Amino acid sequence: MRRSTLFAFLLLAGCAPKMGNPASLIAQERIIGVRADPAEAAPGDLVKYASLVASPSGTVDAQDLSWSMCNLRKPVAENTPVSQACLTGDLPQSAQGGSVAVQTPSAACANFGPFAPPSSSGTLRPSDPDATGGYYQPLRLDLGVEQAIFRERLSCGLAGASLAMSQEFRARYTANQNPTLVSLAALAGETPASLDALPASQRIRLIAAWSSASAESYPVFDSSSQTLVDHREALWLSWFATAGVFDNSVTGRDESDPAVSTENPWQSPATAGVVFLWLVLHDSRGGVDFAAYTLTVVP
After folding, report:
1. 14, 53, 94, 241: least CB-packed within 10 angstroms?
2. How far is CA 70 from CA 2, 25, 236, 274, in A?
3. In this predicted structure, what is the pLDDT of residue 165?
4. What is the DSSP code (8-state) at residue 61?
5. What is the DSSP string of 144-199?
6. With contact defined as beta carbons under 8 Å apart, do 54 and 32 qualify?
């Protein structure tokens, strides 16, 4: 039976964990991250995608990973980020491998943006932007029985704005860039601890940091007031490991918080050995970065 999930960039959590396990525990092979370069693409752009596949034995070089663009619009009655048909439909494969390059469909902004295409029953309703003003192209990933959806942010321009407002938006808006993870540190109490010598059965404070440029500022068009409202990206981090227990599966900072790090207490396992850990950093416009670490737990 295929295991699947709808994860936009909001929580790129991979396929559902086994019953009873926290989302952060890697007890089976799971797709837990996708990074797009560029992080925001126009129709016709070639985008390089990199996957992060985790397993109990470490990071997987997923050469059998299948990537398929889904161009199916979401029915109005479906309360999901993308059409359920993107998961259940027989989609043509766009590429295969752990890292691939795929061209953004030329009709992406018509299918999923503010400029809806005509249909046999008249012009289709345009898609609504998210809170950041964004529109997204769905991309399905298949790996054996595992399946996931990633959404690439689209550069589509504004709908319902005056010419002057559209020109101001283009002058002020910068396409999203992926955030950048820079470090992971550990504290046992208040004492710095080496990642290759973490004490067993202890509460370890893990602190992940990102670059100061990761949280970008951007304007959002408010159609009701016909104005541009400035925002700053929120950043959040998904935590995954093969052993131990995190206090939280996700931590982060909202758009009003300028801090460049986040902390997550982790209860180390009672048994000494190697623990694989992964961090997946998200920004609120769909950017992603990820990193893998090997922890060594000692008696």
Report:
1. 94
2. 18, 29, 26, 39
3. 94
4. -
5. TTEEEEEEEEE----SS--HHHHHHHHHH--------EEEEEEEETTEEE-TTSEE
6. yes
Please report, for residues 72, 152, 226, the alpha-carbon distance to residue 12 in angstroms, rounded to integers and kept in the order given. 21, 13, 33
DSSP 8-state assignment for residue 54: E
Rounded distance between C-alpha atoms, residue 40 and residue 191, angstroms = 41
User: The whole model's pTM is what?
Assistant: 0.91
State mean pLDDT over 185-192: 95
Distance linking the first and last C-alpha atoms of the chain = 40
Domains annotated on the chain, with CATH: 3-298 (2.60.40.150)
Cα 35-37-38 angle, rounded to 5 deg: 125
H or E element, residue 171: helix 163-172
Place of tokens 């999203």: 176
Name the residue with higher pLDDT: 119 or 244.
244
What is the DSSP secondary structure assignment for residue 133, as one 8-state letter?
Answer: S
